[in-house]
Every structure is written in C-alpha cells, then in structure tokens.
Specification:
four-stranded antiparallel beta sheet; 13 helices; alpha+beta; D-amino Acid Aminotransferase, Chain A, domain 1; 28% strand; Rossmann fold
C-alpha cells in the first residue's frame, strides 16, 4: 500500500514514544501493530471526524492531535480545538492551504514570492497571463502533491492548461480558484522546519529534481546534513512561517532560487511526503515525526543532530503510459549494497500506469530507491548506480515522449 510505503516510518517512530489512537477512513491493516485504538471515519467530513475524536477522547486520555496529510490540516485543527488540545488553529491552516491567502500574506510581510492572480474563468486567466508575461504557472489554489500544476509557455497552450488546472481546482475545499503565477526560473528546494512556541529551527534543506514537463512531478530528492544552502534559505523559510502565523509544528517550505535568491512557492504545514522526513533522519539523526508528535502534545522537540551524512531518494516513473509487465532489481544487488537503504515497488505487474495530463504521481509512480553516502553527491551517484540495476518494462498504450528520470 502507498500509505504504508511512505508513512510507516512516521507511525513507527511516534508509537515508540506514545500510545497512538488513530482516526482512519478504512479499517486499519498495516497500522494495527502501532495502535492502541482507532475509529473509522472520513477525515474530510468534519462532523464524522469530530465524533470519532470525541469517542476516542472518552476512552483514552488524549493529549495531542496531529496529521501528516495535507488535505486534513484544517479539519484536524478544528478537531484539536474542539477537544481543547494544542493546535496552530484552523485559521492558520486555512492560510497555508489556500495559496492565494499565502501569497497575500507573503506580500504583506515582504517575503519574496511569486506574482500571483486568482482566476475563475479562461478569460480571466488570459488577462492574468498577458499581464504577468509568459511563461506562467497555473495551479489549483488549494490542492497538493503538484496535482493540477502546469507550466504554460504561450497563449496557444493556455486553454488546455487552464482546463487541466481547473479540473483539479474544482476538488479543492479551502478554495476552487486557479492561480496564474509568475514562473520562477531556478533550482527548487524545500526547507524542513520545526516551529515551537513561535521559534522556527531549520533542520534540513532538500534539493529537488522536478521532471515530466510541463508538469511538476517530483522525481528525486537529496538531503545533506551540511548543505551550504542552509544559510541562504533559512531566513526566507522562517519569514514565511512567521508571515502565515504558524506558532507550532513541523513544516515543509518549498521555494526556488532565482539568481541565487530564495523565492517562496508555498508552505506545507506538515511533515514532508516522498520519504523526505526519513531522508532527514538518515542524514542528521533528527526525527521529524517524533518532533511533530511532541509539539502536538506541548512538549519541546529534541532537534539534536546525531549524524552528519547524506541521503537521496529516486522515484521510478515509466517512460510512457501503459501496462507494467516487469519490475525488478538485479538479483542480489540490494543485499550486496549496504548504501542502498531500501528499494520499494508500489505497482505490480499488470497494473496500468497513467502519466500526466491524464494521471499524476498516484497513478504513474512505480516505486522508489533510497541511497546514503557521506555527501549528497555520493548519495545521488549511488542512486544513479542503483537505477542502472533496475529493470522496468511497460507495454505502451499511447505514444508519448520519454520523461526525464523514467525507466524502460
């Protein structure tokens, strides 16, 4: 299961220090060894979530509530407030979830960001793009995981791009707007932050590789404990969190370096996905999952660095959509390679793989490889080496151009 592959390390870490009760949309399976109790309820339905939380609080002395799921940030903040437990507040989470609100707060507090205009029709999108100048980026105001995000290089591309972004935006809860934004041309990074009682500590910088243009699929990440970018990006990330009024919690702050200077993309007020928290732990020894749980329970997190190394993750994508017919590593390679921390396949032979624009990371990604090393350069080189020992075969259904970072 995808949830187990990407979040089991979080639950395992938290359960080592706390008794965990879970609200989940389906009966728990892999989670059960880590749980004291659970309730089944849709976290997106506030009344159901509140009832489940109240039921658990009546059975157990609940002292904190947290989520690592982007779509659940606002409902979970409301639940925490209802139970009288620590929370950054639903209003703050609304500001993080609605990217238009974030942009306005960044501007008000002089945090370097991208020029952005919210639109609801193609005509408004045309005017906004003309004003900003091409290329522009279209994105849903309140989605996640780069779903519905697309770069547009010319007026001729805009109608189809707007339809693509608007379809995803229509699923938004905090906003159904489409944002037309200035394209920030430069390398993308994320800053993994921990805020406690209003003070933000930058724990790590994640260097990102984005591919499958004109979409923004994240296909690789690398974390180095002593990344020289820490000094460059930390003030911008801290300023962004302050502008949004985030008083507590673990955050994943995304930005791009334009001419060497940080420009904010967005603030995700939760643990990063794509195993980034695990990479941070491998590289620095800091446990972001436990830090998030500690803060939710009004405890000071332990951010002591116990390692100084690097870790990298490489996502496995197909070169084209179709049916997965084979996926494997060279026999014995994993067992003989201590720096290959793990290799995971989340798609089985026979599965259909669908790339953007018809699909997204949930329908296209085959799995991932995690490697370690003394530096990011070594970890990434080892990732490339491991990738060469990977065999992926896909029976094509549609002829498309190959995507960067894809496997045949």
């Amino acid at each position: 299961m995808e949830a187990e592959a990407y979040r089991a390390y979080c639950l395992q870490s938290i359960a080592a220090h706390y008794d965990v009760v879970l609200i989940t949309g389906a009966e728990p399976t892999w989670e059960r060894p880590y749980l004291l109790d659970w309730e089944v309820a849709d976290p997106m339905e506030q009344s159901a979530l509140s009832a489940a939380g109240q039921a658990l609080a009546e059975r157990h002395p609940v002292v904190g509530v947290m989520t690592w799921t982007e779509w659940h940030l606002v409902p979970v903040a409301r639940l925490a407030r209802r139970l009288g437990l620590p929370t950054a507040g639903p209003e703050v989470m609304q500001g993080c979830r609605n990217k238009a609100t974030s942009r306005a707060l960044f501007a008000r507090h002089a945090v370097p960001s991208a020029a952005s205009t919210g639109v609801r029709t193609i005509q408004e999108a045309v005017r906004a793009a003309q004003h900003l100048g091409y290329p522009v980026v279209l994105k849903p105001a309140s989605h996640a995981a780069s779903v519905g995000v697309i770069r547009v290089d010319s007026p001729e591309e805009l109608p189809d791009a707007y339809a693509f972004a608007a379809q995803a935006a229509g699923l938004g809860v905090e906003s159904t707007e489409v944002l037309v934004e200035e394209y920030l041309d430069g390398p993308e990074v994320s800053v993994e932050c921990v805020t406690y009682q209003g003070t933000t500590t930058v724990v790590a910088v994640t260097r990102k590789t984005v591919g499958i243009p004109p979409y923004f699929e994240e296909i690789a990440h690398a974390v180095d404990a002593v990344d020289p970018l820490l000094a460059t990006v930390s003030p911008a990330a801290q300023a962004a969190l302050k502008a949004l009024g985030v008083p507590d919690g673990v955050s994943h702050v995304e930005l791009r370096l334009v001419d060497g200077r940080p420009r904010l993309i967005e603030v995700n007020a939760r643990l990063a996905g794509d195993m980034i928290g695990h990479l941070v732990h491998l590289a620095t020894g800091v446990d972001l999952a436990r830090a998030a749980a500690d803060i939710a329970c009004s405890r000071a997190p332990d951010l002591t660095r116990t390692r100084s190394r690097a870790a990298a993750i490489r996502m496995i994508y197909p070169a084209h959509p179709g049916t997965l017919t084979a996926r494997r590593l060279t026999d014995g390679f994993n067992e003989q390679t201590p720096w290959l921390e793990r290799a995971h396949f989340q798609r089985d032979v026979g599965d259909q793989l669908v790339l953007p624009p018809d699909g997204d990371l949930f329908t296209a990604r085959i799995g991932f490889l995690i490697t370690t090393g003394p530096t990011a350069a070594v970890a990434q080189a080892r990732s490339q080496d491991a990738y060469r020992h990977l065999t992926v075969q896909v029976e094509p259904q549609l002829a498309t151009t190959s995507a960067p970072g894809s496997a045949e």
